[in-house]
Structures are given as C-alpha cells and as structure tokens.
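Model it.
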Amino acid sequence: MSITLPPDYRPSDDEPFMNETQREYFRQKLLKWRSELLRESDETLQHLQEGGLQEPDIADRASAETDRALELRTRDRARKLISKIDAALGRIEDGSYGYCEETGEPISLRRLEARPIATLSIEAQERHERMERTHREE
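Modeled.
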C-alpha cells in the first residue's frame, strides 16, 4: 500500500499521532538522509583512494595525514548514523516509530523533525544525560 504525500505536507499536532501520512513523511525523510550520507561516504572513499601520501614536504604530508584521519572519522560517524537510520526505518515498519522506548509516550513532532532517529522523548533524554553526568563525576 503506497501513500502519496502532498508536496507541502508537514506533520502537525492536529492529526492523529503517527498516522499513515506521518509515518510515510518520516520514512521519506529518513531515506533521503540515508542516501545523502551514502553519497557523501562514497565521495570520501573516492577521495581517500585518490589521495596518496606522496607529498614531498613534511608539513604537507602531515596536513594530508590529518585530512585523512578526519575523513576516516567522518566516514565512521556516517556509518553509525546510517545504522541508526536503518533502525528507525525498522521502527516505522513495526509501528514503534515516534514513541519513547523508555516511557512509551509519543516523542514530540518537533523533536522528530529535528532528529528523526530519536528514540527517547526530550524528558527521557534529559534524564539519561543527567545520569551520565552524575556517573562521570563519581
């Protein structure tokens, strides 16, 4: 069953939470983000393969090495994000998308719009961050 979104559609609190249209909206948003990350990752890989370390100058070589390390970190971050996007797409399929995995409450549409891979409500996220800070300080 396929659903066509109006081009100017934005989820709103006036409609049932995570109805078919909202799920499709977030599914498309996640797929678009995923394909952008994959494209950027391919470009990074291509750049890494092209860039040998034949820089004669030691400063240029060091700079190239720094760039390479940064590209590898960026690529690793993209890989982790793609994994989170895939998990979010799975939640759309199983019907759990948009609900806090801790409280079961709906995650706000504003939060999902800003961070479509969110698994916690703002309140639960803040609780987690407070706990992490407390454990770090001990």
